[in-house]
């Protein structure tokens, strides 16, 4: 894609979004704060990165014509300040012409990591039509643009167009023995990465995601367990995983 094509695409997109942004009606909003423990050495693979104490916060809002979700995570709180790292994510879907198809945008940043800081910018299209009282499945496909401090001796900086992403967010709401439960999943396939980032992450393609079981109780508290998985991602070669245990308060 040359720069003129990109400018034309962005201008068209801006016109579409301006038309959709008028008179948004809030349908629901949600948020929580959480604290817990994770272990890189538990799971199917021992990645030899040890224990992690962490704190997180998330907030989301669903409108009649758009959706928004954000997430913040502070990791390795059991280490000195200089050994900690942070994750920030914000994702939106804006419905196109009142349909179930959407423009999708996402920012996903990882900072103060041993394998390098990076900000992932994704923009593409999604689908919101598979949603109801029992759960949802929201897929998307996007261009992947990267801002990274990694520099390859062979390929130069990892910045710029970084291939494509095919992903989704999904959830299933159900009762178990009279208790409210949620099984949720987010997943991204990173495809055709640029050469410098592929060198850093050990492959042209990678996987990033998590599967979470949440128990909601009394009435604003929740407990969750997440199976965090990745393949040629997070600076780790091949498949790796992590188990995360969290307690949270919903507001």
Automatic annotation (TrEMBL):
Pfam families: Channel_Tsx. Coiled coil: none annotated. Keywords: Signal. Residues 1-23 form the signal peptide. InterPro entries: Channel_Tsx-like (IPR018013), Channel_Tsx-like_sf (IPR036777). It comes from the Bacteria. The keyword Transcription regulation does not apply. Belongs to the nucleoside-specific channel-forming outer membrane porin (Tsx) (TC 1.B.10) family. This is Outer membrane protein OmpK. It comes from Atlantibacter subterraneus.
């Amino acid at each position: 894609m040359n720069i003129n094509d990109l400018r034309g695409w962005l201008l068209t997109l801006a016109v579409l979004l301006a038309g959709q942004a008028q008179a948004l009606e809030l349908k629901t909003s949600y948020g929580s704060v959480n604290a817990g423990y994770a272990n890189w050495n538990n799971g199917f693979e021992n990645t030899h990165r040890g224990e992690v104490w962490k704190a997180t916060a998330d907030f989301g809002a669903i409108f009649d014509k758009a959706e928004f979700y954000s997430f913040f995570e502070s990791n390795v709180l059991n280490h000195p300040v200089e050994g900690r790292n942070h994750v920030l994510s914000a994702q939106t879907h804006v419905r196109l012409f009142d349909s179930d198809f959407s423009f999708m945008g996402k920012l996903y940043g990882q900072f103060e990591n041993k394998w390098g800081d990076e900000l992932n910018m994704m923009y593409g299209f999604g689908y919101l039509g598979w949603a109801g009282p029992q759960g949802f499945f929201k897929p998307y496909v996007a261009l992947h643009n990267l801002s990274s401090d990694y520099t390859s001796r062979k390929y130069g900086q990892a910045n710029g167009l970084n291939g494509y992403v095919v992903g989704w967010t999904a959830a299933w709401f159900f009762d178990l023995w009279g208790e409210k439960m949620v099984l949720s999943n987010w997943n991204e396939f990173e495809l055709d990465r640029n050469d410098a980032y592929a060198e850093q992450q050990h492959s042209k393609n990678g996987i990033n995601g998590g599967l979470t079981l949440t128990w909601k109780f009394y009435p604003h508290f929740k407990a969750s367990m997440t199976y965090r998985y990745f393949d040629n991602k997070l600076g780790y070669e091949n498949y790796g995983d992590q188990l995360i245990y969290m307690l949270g308060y919903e507001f």
